[in-house]
Amino acid sequence: MSDFFNQISRRKFILTAGASTGAVFLKGCLGNPPENLSSGGSTQSAPTAQPVANISPEQKPETTKVQLGYIPIVEAAPLIIAKEKGFFAKYGMTDVELAKQASWGAARDNVEIGAAGGGIDGGQWQMPMPHLITEGLITKGNKPIPMYVLCQLITHGNGIAIANKHQGSGIGLKLASAKSLFSKLKASPTPFTAAQTFPAVNQDFWIRYWLAAGGIDPDTEVKLLTVPSAQTVANMKTGTMDAFSTGDPWPFRIVKDKIGFMAALTAEIWKNHPEEYLAMRADWVDKNPKATKALLKGIMEAQQWCDNFDNRKEMSEIVAQRAYFNVPVDVLLDPYMGKYDMGEGRQIDDKSMAALYWKDEKGNVSYPYKSHDLWFITESVRWGFLPKDYIVNNAAKARALIDKVNREDIWKEAAKEAGIAAGDIPTNTSRGVEEFFDGVKFDPENPEAYLKSLQIKKVSV
């Protein structure tokens, strides 16, 4: 185990401590908190007419009950819509409880104890949290808790926010013209300070990739912190935070409230990138294989519903409710339609850049490609979060872990049972070569070559 995760295991991440003193709204990045969050309590909204399940006996779920954790952000929409529009109930899962989590650390703690102990059976996760929990790298006492990744929930919906004091400094998608600013701040008593809400997972990776692509070492040239979201926003308002990784609907508020501007959307950094996922405790899935597929069918139907832009006003109204996101509808609708006021006079109006749940320009969003899991693990090695042995020998150790955790086979079975068109069911566990905004390419057949191509990294290859 790496020293990084030894340290995290001992201090249980800064977020867990933050959650114990007050409920915090966490984006896959950051944002202002709604009221009355809990780390494990379920939320209820206005009742919706539930369709009568019409299920063949061989597909009848073993249980109708499950406890799914979620963070109130756009990634959670398929779970909320599946419950509110009756898609879970349609496939026999009539007792799905959505438990709002105060933080990613709280979600990790709650899946450790499981629903039987008052926690959760699974839910929404940043990557590669399910793999790290499976390995026991971020659990109490480093106890392995096997988990299964079952589907991707979303692509896009995130970005990099910069404090208003840096307007006009050249900080944008590309950082060439802003390098002198970073150098100046590095030598000052107050270095450039940026934040994410949980270390060594995708929101941390987005800001690290963006900085490194611009020639800025995130470990030596900036101060990169793990900070609860409400504290981060307050720090940005008072001028003590320079940047943070954020997501919808916060770009709207950041610019509207003149807190800052958006340097880049993650859709610009990596178009059609993997974002957050549904993952469950392996013991729950193994005990309830039919119920697992019923959950997936409900989520897939919800994802298709969410991707109909004619439904996005209604979707915004549903997820904006106090029981879920507790935000005004208008801060959700524009981003959901691909409309971003980035600040500094820059506007984006492009539905292909919006949060997408079922399909994007590269194909199926919901299907959990193993090649994407490999990128997350490769980035973990890049920054020293995991040892190099995960990637050597053509990533044999990483691939073995992915094969254990990623259950794309269950996704395919559920899709076929749900009547998903054959053309929407991927036939390869790899999406192939991925390309980033700086021209760097990740070939899942050769992750070591990707690492070698990167100028800024902690690992030596």
UniProtKB/TrEMBL annotation:
Q: InterPro entries from the entry?
A: NrtA/CpmA_ABC-bd_dom, TAT_signal
Quote the Pfam families the UniProt record gives: NMT1_2
The protein's UniProt keywords, in alphabetical order, are: Cell inner membrane, Cell membrane, Ion transport, Membrane, Signal, Transport
Q: Which GO terms describe its cellular component?
A: plasma membrane
Q: Where is this region: Disordered?
A: 36-60
User: Matching PROSITE patterns, A to Z?
Assistant: TAT (PS51318)
Please give a single GO biological process term from the UniProt record. monoatomic ion transport
Q: Does the keyword Signal apply?
A: yes
Polar residues compositional bias, start-end: 36-57
**Family per UniProt?**
Belongs to the CmpA/NrtA family.
Q: What is this protein called?
A: CmpA/NrtA family ABC transporter substrate-binding protein
